[in-house]
Amino acid sequence: MRLWLGVAVLLAVAAAAAFGWHWMAADPGYLLLRLRGWSIETTVMFALVALVAGWLLSYLVWRLLLWPLRALGRTRARRGQARLSGGLTALAEGRYAQAERDLGKLAGQPALRGPALLGVAQAAHARGDDDRANRALDQVPDACASAALVLRARQLLDAGQTEAGVALLKSALAEGRLPPVGQQLLAETALAIDDPATAVAALEALARSQTVAPAVLEALDVRVREASLRHAPDAARLNALWSGLSRSMRRRPELVEAFARRAAALGQILAAMDEIQSAQKRQWNERLAAAYGELGRLELPSRSRTAESWLAIAPNSPALLTTLGRLHAELGAWSKAEHYLERARAAAETPAVWEALGDCLLARGAAADAARCYRNALSLARGEPSRPLDPDAKAPIGIDTHALAVEERNAHGVPQLPLIG
């Protein structure tokens, strides 16, 4: 298509030239120029040709005069690109002094001034020279002002000035000039300081930018919604947040746990129980099984019966056995509580099992054994091995310390390994 178009244009130009030449040949015209006693007589055709030739000659002379300057500019550009490449490579490799030196030499070039100063600020901050970093950020041109703002906020956060850094990011977000990397930084920082409202605002702006991978955005979204549920000020706000989630979000175990714990803390124990029970019917989750035993002292008999019914689903679950131990301990059934806790400890030693077992032994008056249990809980939390209880200590009689071996089958009736973690 382009070839035919080019041929058509050439034919049109040739036809126009032939027609123009024929038209001018019939009457070439007459041109007379007089200036200070000089007279120039010529035809119009020759005058036009001379004018075009003069323009071409002037253009060639101008290009020849600019050639040394252009060559110098190209040489300078190549050197600048080499320095920029070397400086960025040094910055990525941790050679911050060299990066600062190479990038600093580019600050005088208008096209590279912004990126060079941003790199200098990063290198100086990495070296611990925040004064040099601030001076570089102060010189960043307006075209890179948003990037400079994020670097300044990150510098404040790294220095422990969290309030100042968050305030800077929030003001930029409110003004609509916070780039996506700053929005993600604000969301992460707000989660760290338990400010879910700010995290939600930053997350919404980040989602609108469509610059983050869907998996990363989804993971951050779950964390933000979880924090919002955990910090709901009252039951009405909690229910509004929960009902505002999508169905897929309300099925995520971490969000179900956050809602249940906050609902129980606000006195809505039935709602907390219902959400965990519904989630466990859909798909068994160890995290929810553990949370079910940590909802307070309300509805203990009902919760213990429900938890015991779950033994048919996950008889060897350490989280479920620990929950049963906690619930029966709250009910005062110490022997039954120790029975479940011993089974949980035999299945998998965890700090929660040792702590709950210590509570039971302490309630029975075995303070020495309880202290050993608490010591083992702390040891496991620190990554250290536990120690066996004193063989001379008073131990429960008749408690099966082995995990219950029950055959488990999947939805198709095929036997499968027991679910432990």
TrEMBL record:
Name of the featured protein: Heme biosynthesis protein HemY
Membrane topology: Multi-pass membrane protein
Keywords: Cell inner membrane, Cell membrane, Membrane, Porphyrin biosynthesis, Transmembrane, Transmembrane helix
Transmembrane segments: 44-66
HemY N-terminal domain residues: 29-128
Function in brief: Involved in a late step of protoheme IX synthesis.
Record localization: Cell inner membrane
Keyword Lipid metabolism: no
Pathway this chain belongs to: Porphyrin-containing compound metabolism; protoheme biosynthesis
Listed GO CC annotations: plasma membrane
Chief place of localization: membrane
Gene Ontology annotations of biological process type: heme metabolic process; porphyrin-containing compound biosynthetic process
Domain of life: Bacteria
